[in-house]
């Protein structure tokens, strides 16, 4: 696909949090598979759910309901740094015309203590657009994306322990 085939996409998935959420995890923008599933980390090769399940000692969630329950029962929250952008497929490197998400819809209603970005792209847009408005910093974690093949599942789990 070329940039001529890039499409303007609006983030279709609402943030996942409740009044007990303490840790916010931000991806960059939902992949094609996640947009189709209408839920976060929908690509079967993304290691996010394996990492969270390993860290929490919970069984690997399969359904969207199981995934929501796993996140909320561990006082986590999920969303993405980007609210809309022009993107080719799921390619982070093709992202243009970014409009960031307004995280106050979460931070005004949940006692978020820490914010983590899942990968460099999420961190880049958080730092550029969100941090100046929100006045809060985030920490970058290694991406759970299958594109981050340099990180084994064990290394990811070890790096991600800080969320607990």
Q: Can you describe this structure?
A:
The chain has 164 residues and is of the alpha/beta class. It has one domain: Uracil-DNA glycosylase-like domain (Uracil-DNA Glycosylase, subunit E, 3-Layer(aba) Sandwich). The chain is 32% helix and 20% strand. It is built from six helices and seven strands. It has helices at 32-37, 48-56, 64-73, 104-107, 120-134, 153-160; strands spanning 7-10, 23-27, 76-80, 82-87, 96-100, 114-118, 139-141. Strand 4 (82-87) and strand 5 form a beta hairpin. It is globular, with a radius of gyration of 15 Å. The protein starts with 6 loop residues before the first strand and ends with a helix.
Question: Topology of this protein?
Answer:
Blueprint: E1 7-10, E2 23-27, H1 32-37, H2 48-56, H3 64-73, E3 76-80, E4 82-87, E5 96-100, H4 104-107, E6 114-118, H5 120-134, E7 139-141, H6 153-160
Parallel strand pairs: 2-3, 2-6, 6-7
Antiparallel strand pairs: 1-4, 4-5
């Amino acid at each position: 696909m070329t940039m001529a085939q890039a499409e303007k996409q609006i983030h279709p998935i609402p943030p996942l949090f409740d009044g007990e959420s303490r840790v916010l995890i931000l991806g960059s923008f939902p992949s094609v598979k996640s947009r189709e599933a209408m839920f976060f980390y929908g690509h079967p090769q993304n290691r996010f759910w394996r990492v969270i399940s390993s860290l929490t000692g919970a069984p690997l969630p399969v359904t969207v309901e199981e995934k929501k329950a796993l996140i909320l029962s561990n006082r986590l929250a999920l969303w993405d740094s980007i609210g809309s952008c022009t993107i080719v497929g799921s390619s982070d490197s093709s992202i243009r015309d970014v409009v960031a998400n307004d995280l106050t819809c979460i931070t005004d209603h949940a006692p978020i203590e820490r914010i983590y970005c899942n990968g460099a792209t999420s961190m880049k847009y958080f730092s550029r657009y969100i941090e100046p408005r929100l006045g809060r910093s985030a920490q970058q974690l290694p991406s759970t994306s299958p594109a981050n093949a340099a990180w084994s599942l064990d290394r990811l789990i070890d790096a991600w322990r800080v969320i607990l």
